[in-house]
Amino acid sequence: MARDESLSGIGIRPVTAEARIGAFLRGVYGWMAAGLAITALVAYFVASSNWIGLLATHRWLLFALFIAQIGVVITLSAGASRIAPGAATALFLGYSALTGVTLSLILLVYTRESIASTFVITAGMFGAMALYGTTTPRSLAGWGSFLFMGLIGVILASVVGLFWQNDALQFLIGFAGVIVFTGLTAYDAQRLKAMALAVPDAQLGSYTIVGALSLYLNFVNLFLSLLRLSGGRRS
Length: 235
Known about the structure:
- Helices cover 79% and strands 0% of the residues.
- By secondary structure, the protein is mainly alpha-helical.
- The chain has one domain.
- The chain starts with 16 loop residues before the first helix and ends in a 5-residue tail after the last helix.
């Protein structure tokens, strides 16, 4: 059993690798769940207020929010080793709130029953793939390049879909998104196990937030992909 022996000489009980991984993953999934809860609450609040009309009629505002979200993701992902845990947490919670604002529009498009059932299905699929990625002895490193190319394809197709409203294209984006984000969930879940052992103690808090952001993005995008495929639209 692998152990951290760095503290054994000063009378402090060494921490097993399994305990370190477990503590790290609990933090990751806890923050991911907190982010999803904030997103849901903000989306419901905005959809129930006058702000929803402003978002629906001013595309530039929605575009500005998307740019802000991309900026936060880049800042967290690229600067995890330099950002203090408190700042990383604030950025992640802010990102979750911004996502809630943009996702409030789906409450105008899809029925609430459809959104609720899709969320449950997403949670089941996400949980199964995360469990597989965490427990499988098989290395999923080879999935990385394939999934990255798929992600780029989904992003480009989604941009085209903003300007060309075509049912066949939307179905294709949803189908590809389900494949890419279920794969990324398993891939990231396994990657986070390795991260727990590789990251220095001083940076573990910030990387916990970065890990939560990765899984949060997989969950949200898997949810949106499934909603594209089978979501019931309002009449």
